[in-house]
Amino acid sequence: MTDTNDKPKFQIFRVKDAKSLEEEGNMSLQEFTPEQMTGIATLYDPELARGDEVKVLFNIPGFNLTHVWFKKNYPLPRHSHDCDCLYYIIAGSLRVGTEELGPRDGFFISANVPYTYTPGPEGVELLEFRHATAFDFKLLVQGAAFWARAADTARANSAEWRTATMPPLNV
To answer: Which residue, among 11, 128, 109, 1, has the nearest Cα to 60 in the 3D structure?
Structure first.
């Protein structure tokens, strides 16, 4: 149980001050297989533009808010986390399973439940809420076929990802 004395009574956060997920260091990566490591290295080749932007907006004991922008066609690998996650779509769209979700829609994933989703044609901007300060990322994609497709997708979209802008807010 978290001691409520560890939490601020009031705190403002600004996106301009947000750290990347890597800089924040609150997500631990489960051990990857050699095949997964090769696939990730190809997907995040420094010569290619990244199709993702993930920033931690707020992180206090027992509560985490992350802003995510996945550009169109970003190949999010099937994975799970060791805590519950609540997702709220700000702009753009995504497909999770057979469902197409758009602005002001959302979904909930319980801890350790495998999932992925596909950004829509304009990409997707969303918020991830977690009732945890730290969490893991367990990569569940095992085969080389996914990583080959992901690398092809990154190469095919790199130029567009470099100049992409977030999807417009449709309020």
So the answer is: 11
Is 0.85 surpassed by the pTM of this model?
A: yes
Give residue 53's domain range: 17-32+49-142
Residue 163, in any domain of the structure: no
3-state secondary structure of 161: helix
Q: Round to whole Å and give the CA distance between 126 and 133.
A: 19
3-class SS shares of the chain: helix, strand, coil, % to 5: 25, 35, 40
Q: 26-51 pLDDT, tens per residue?
A: 888 878 888 888 888 888 888 889 99
In a domain, 21, yes or no: yes
For position 128, which CATH number holds?
Answer: 2.60.120.10
Question: Exposed/middle/buried for 111, CB within 10 Å: 0-12, 13-18, 19+?
Answer: middle
